[in-house]
Specification:
The chain is an all-alpha fold. The protein contains 16 helices and two strands. The protein has helices at residues 7-24, 30-41, 47-56, 63-88, 99-102, 105-122, 129-151, 160-185, 190-217, 220-223, 229-233, 238-244, 250-262, 270-277, 281-300, 307-319; strands spanning 92-93, 96-97. A two-stranded antiparallel ribbon has the order 1-2. A hairpin with a 2-residue loop joins strand 1 (92-93) and strand 2. It is globular, with a radius of gyration of 20 Å. The protein starts with 6 loop residues before the first helix and ends in a 5-residue tail after the last helix.
């Protein structure tokens, strides 16, 4: 399944979004333009712009208006990835060198800041104050989520609730507001926008849990980075939290995580990955992701019966089955 199979119906408008993304980072600094383009050209699922456009289908659809929501949201997401790569000391993303690896940490941090600034510049085309308020609040929450993740590196005492709050801030909220803001920008009914927010929120939670599962169960070719990268960086994800609740695996897994921490992640993590993948942490994480998908599908029930509703249902069902 390529790009969720819905690019057939949105391909023309997504081509507009892609072109606008590249144009949006052009500026007076050739180096910042180059580093920003390097990041954007690495690709990605463009999930957030897709949800903006699909949200817009429930109102007065106008690509020239919606692009001023879709492009900034993708840029905000991309900027957060540049900063993530510095924090995680990641050399590759989607199988290609990160900005941090190709240049250096300082250039990467300024690139992220530059993209954030360009994103905010684009939103000045939008005249609805509520859209600006929602977007600003989401960015604040994302920053808090990033800080929480750093604080919890190698924290093996964290519980499921703490993990869920973190991914809500880091991932789910931006997907939720992508769905919501697409509808609001298209002047859709407020109840429709709220239902789309609930859909996006639950899809976002499932999406991140699946990402964390892929980090342990996927191949380097599938995920564009070595398996176990999260543990190598100290990011204790849901499958690991569940595995630590297994009395037979807790002590050996704690020892492995302590070894990884001591060696600053510069070591083989195969044994740690095996301890988690052989536990019920995988199946329990999959079950929770499925619960969020069911909630997302429930949120769709209140939406008008248009073609886009079925496409959103298809995306939700795809999330927990994807391999990239």
């Amino acid at each position: 399944m390529k790009r969720f199979d819905i690019f057939g119906t949105l391909k023309k408008d997504m081509d507009v979004i892609e072109k606008e993304l590249y144009l949006s980072v052009e500026g007076d600094s050739p180096e910042l333009t180059e580093t920003s383009l390097h990041l954007l050209r690495a690709g990605g699922k463009r999930l957030r712009p897709v949800f903006v456009l699909m949200g817009g289908k429930f109102g007065d659809y106008d690509i020239d208006k919606l692009k001023h929501v879709a492009v900034p949201l993708e840029m905000i997401h991309s900027a957060s990835l540049v900063h993530d790569d510095v924090i995680d000391d990641a050399d590759t993303r989607r199988g290609k060198p990160t900005v941090k690896a190709k240049w250096d940490n300082r250039i990467a941090m300024y690139t992220g800041d530059y993209i954030y600034g360009k994103a905010l510049e684009l939103t000045t085309h939008l005249k609805q104050p509520e859209i600006h308020q929602i977007l600003a609040k989401a960015m604040v929450e994302m920053s808090i989520g990033e800080m929480e993740q750093i604080r919890d590196f190698f924290n093996t005492d964290q519980d499921v609730r703490r993990y869920l709050l973190r991914i809500r801030r880091k991932t789910s909220l931006l997907i939720a507001v992508s769905c919501q803001l697409g509808a609001l920008a298209a002047d859709a009914d407020r109840r429709v926008a709220n239902s789309l927010y609930r859909f996006g929120y639950n899809v976002g939670m499932a999406f991140q849990i699946q990402d964390d599962l892929l980090d342990l169960c996927g191949t380097e070719k599938q995920i564009g980075k070595p398996p176990g990268s999260d543990m190598r960086q100290g990011n204790i994800t849901l499958p690991v939290i569940f595995a630590l609740e297994d009395s037979k695996r807790r002590e050996p897994l704690l020892q492995e995580l302590d070894r990884i921490h001591t060696l600053n992640g510069q070591c083989d993590v195969t044994d740690a990955v095996k301890l988690v993948t052989s536990s019920d942490g995988i199946s329990r994480s999959e079950a929770l992701a499925d619960r969020y998908i069911r909630k997302a599908l429930d949120a769709l029930d209140t939406l008008p019966d248009i073609k886009t509703k079925k496409q959103l249902r298809d995306i939700a069902n795809f999330i927990t089955k994807r391999s990239y």
